[in-house]
User: Fold Thioesterase domain-containing protein from Aspergillus pseudoviridinutans.
Amino acid sequence: MTATSTSFSTSTEETLAFFNTIPKCAEILSQPDRRVIHPRNPDTFFHSTLRTNHGILKSIFIYQPARTSTSPNSNDTDTDTSAIANPPNTNPQEREREQGYLLLHLGRGVSGQPDIAHGGFLATVLDQVTGTLIRASGLDRGRGAVTVYLNVKYQRPVRVPGIVVARAEIGRVEGRKIYVDGEICVADQESNGEGEGDGI
Assistant:
């Protein structure tokens, strides 16, 4: 059964309103078929430990399903990720690629060097956006997934505090392995880093 709602909690409404003031984020939020994903069992490290008044100040995950001829146009919010899982007889390799966006408002608490986000934190962001996309797409079949390989190429520093957009895209599926590409960029710049990984 699909659990879809067009009403948000106050905190989600405030978060969406905040990110809608950032042009790059507003462009993502205006895409047809996009869905705000609320994880059923959010991981403690990313959603609690790093969520402080000087670490991750605000965050929201946006799922963009693969566009197909039968995909309805909707800006609904999905609170049940099973509602967007692959139909049982759908081959993910024959569909257009699903994408996920993690919008983040970062404080100075994630710095390595002064006012520069720690490289290990950015790798964590890539791991988070790729893993959340796998769960949102239903490719994990509800069992969850773990990262077995993560390769990160850093291109330029990410200044903090600031707004960051992490994007992930499903690559290919080979048995239990799901290959995902990702990148991180500051909201007013081009890509700051990219990564690739696979999970099982």
